[in-house]
Write a structure and sequence with these properties.
It is built from 7 helices and 20 strands. β19 and β20 form a beta hairpin. The chain is elongated.
């Protein structure tokens, strides 16, 4: 029963019928009734009998233990992490992804919903990421096609739920190794043991790493590394850059009567001065004028940088950081406009936000135009 606590007292066996208040019988009955609590002090004879009774059920974890231990540990909910799949290495420019399979082996469900928080704990800092329906989802392993909203009260008894999340890491997160914890508490702002956090039933695999962290009030799921951020794309050398609108071919130097042909060299003494313009006509201007027409293409953009190299292959979960000291005016991805506020000096292009515009196994073309009209192009492929 979701949202309702079911429990009571155990009465003395009357010897009639098939009902026997033993651990073996409770293993079947309590899962059906979703028993959350029992009175420890009634009936003493029945409780004491369970303490001396050896567990003979189907759970190998309790082999050799008493029936009382089994019943006590399974009252209410009891969560066990069965498998975790997560990103092992990433950078601040990529997302962190994780999937965790959590089984409820208890007799019942949670009565009150708990908030989920992923905690990254490293030597250089601790980061908290509350999980919501926008950055995480869950589904039951028995119905993998039915994605549900996050709700811990729906982690049913005798079922396994998979939690999937994709977290946008801070761009200033320090390089290093981080332990990943999952916290279930009454709210996503409480810390430590406040907020009634839930402790999973997993045993510690090593003495060096405890599954339960008292300080964080959270359960260890694994670890991953944040690596050094990729260097910005180097500036390409341009053959056009050697041609600049310098005074080498300024309009005043193209053709002048004194610089190209002097009157004494081309006109006989008998010639009238009216023929001098015919010699020094601007007919030679077209031979050098084209150098002035390439001025718009000779602007060298040294102020736009990308977080990845040109013609790099990147993950679908990654992102590209764009910086431009001259401020960004326009961005296009494969010829289609990217929504960006003009006048900004930086912009982060998250691949997951532009899935429809990205090409798989083909070159994607990203063009950035700044306020001065300079353009810089980046080509990249999605793995």
């Amino acid at each position: 029963m979701v949202g309702v606590c079911h429990g009571g007292e155990i009465v003395t066996n009357d010897g009639l019928g098939e009902v026997r208040n033993t651990a073996a019988y409770m293993e079947k009955e309590a899962f059906i009734t979703h028993t959350s609590y029992l009175n420890l002090y009634w009936n003493n004879n029945v409780v004491d009998a369970m303490k001396t009774e050896s567990y003979a059920g189907n759970d190998p974890v309790y082999s050799g233990k008493s029936g009382f231990d089994y019943v006590r540990n399974h009252l209410g909910y009891r969560f066990v992490v069965r498998d975790v799949r997560l990103t092992k290495e990433t950078t601040a420019y990529e997302d962190f992804c994780m999937e965790a399979d959590i089984e409820n082996v208890g007799f019942a469900n949670l009565v009150r919903n708990k908030q989920l928080v992923v905690i990254l704990d490293g030597e250089n800092g601790t980061y908290r990421f509350p999980l919501t329906d926008t950055n995480a989802s869950q589904w039951n392993k028995d119905d993998a096609l039915s994605v549900q909203k996050l709700s811990t009260v729906d982690w049913d008894s005798c079922s396994t739920v998979t939690i999937r999340t994709q977290i946008d890491l801070p761009e200033d997160i320090p390089i290093g190794t981080y332990n990943i914890y999952l916290r279930l508490a009454d709210d996503d702002t409480s810390e430590g043991e406040s907020g009634y956090p839930v402790r999973f039933a997993n045993k510690d695999k090593t003495e060096k790493k405890n599954v339960w962290n008292d300080k964080l009030g959270a359960n260890l799921l694994g670890s991953f590394a944040v690596e050094e951020k990729p260097n910005p794309m180097p500036e390409p050398t341009s053959s056009v850059a050697t041609v600049t609108p310098t005074p080498t071919v300024s309009p005043t130097e193209i053709v002048t009567p004194t610089a190209t042909v002097s009157p004494t060299e081309t006109v006989a003494p008998t010639a009238t001065p009216t023929k001098q313009p015919a010699v020094a006509t601007p007919t030679k201007q077209p031979t050098v004028a084209p150098t002035a027409t390439i001025t718009p293409d000779t602007k060298k953009d040294n102020k736009t940088t990308f977080s990845i190299k040109n013609k790099a292959k990147v993950k679908s979960s990654s992102k590209i950081k764009i910086k431009d000291k001259d401020k960004i005016k326009k961005i296009t991805l494969n010829g289609k406009n990217v929504k960006v506020k003009t006048g900004k000096k930086s912009f982060t292009l998250k691949h997951k936000s532009y899935k429809k515009k990205l090409k798989k196994s083909k070159w994607n073309k990203l063009v950035v135009t700044d306020n001065n009209g300079n353009k810089k192009t980046l080509k990249f492929k999605i793995k």
